[in-house]
Amino acid sequence: MGNGRLLAWLFAVAWPAAHAAGDALPHADAPAQAREEARDELQRRAEQAGARLAARLERAAHATSPVAWSAQASLHPLGQSVEDVESGVDLWLSPRLLLGGSLSSGEAWLQFDALGGGGQARLPMASLHAHYRGDGWHATGAVGAAQGRARLQRPIQAGESLHLANADRRFGQVFAHGEVGRALALGEARVVPFAALDYGQVRSDGFVESGPTGLELLAGPSRQSRLSAAVGARVARDWHGAGWSLGLSLDARYRRGLVDGEPLVAAFRGVPGATFALPREDRDGVELGLGLSGAGAGGLRWWFDYGLEAGSARDGRRWMLGLRRGF
Predict the structure, then answer these.
(1) CA-based angle 23:40:318, to the nearest 5?
(2) Are 287 and 307 in contact (CB under 8 A)?
């Protein structure tokens, strides 16, 4: 589960207080596009990473020796850019059971607006995964942990003056993903109805934004958890030729939150006793995905993913392009 999906989360973790501040006072010119609450955005990226892993392992061919691989990917949610490098190994213990793990590191950038709001983050990650194939069905599971730091700034319009508030934050996360599904033949294509479960916990230290206005934000250490479930189906078709292959996949799922943690709380530095809860996001909704992938000689594979979220509170789009090489 490459940490390119995780890196993009950091910006929503570091800035939800800024967006709540923009709602609380008109003088705090917080970027409107990033209203996502931190925990929800982190969980969203973990869910997407788990879905991609489950789809990859469900289509993987059995190998008699360990398969080491390295991948580089570029992820582009709206307003974000993430470059990720990941290395790992997949080991088939039998034709039915695969175990594996990966390490990844990368860097993410975000531009909120033309006034200078944005940031940069690094986030190393480690994860383990397992995949079991029964008679026409499969089960996939993954667990992982990540820790990193983000440096961000946001514009504050105080009267005629524009100031930039700066903050550094350290984050940690643990996550788990599980999926069960069954493969059905549909002509030359394969249909896989499935059910999935995702859990994530995000921890962050306290922070104080620097700046002269008093509208800078402060918050103490926090810990948020979320459990969600999804049901849906994937449709996939593969074409093979002499030394090449091409794959097309469609993914549709409905996701619903089951358990939510407590909301984050922050305050303005000028009035630290007046705290306010950060806005929550309704995550329930439909997620759609389109994937293209191919392979050539030398164990080199490429993939392109496009995703669309049609939830009740937010419509999100993203695309991802990557290369993977097996050894």
Answers:
(1) 95
(2) yes
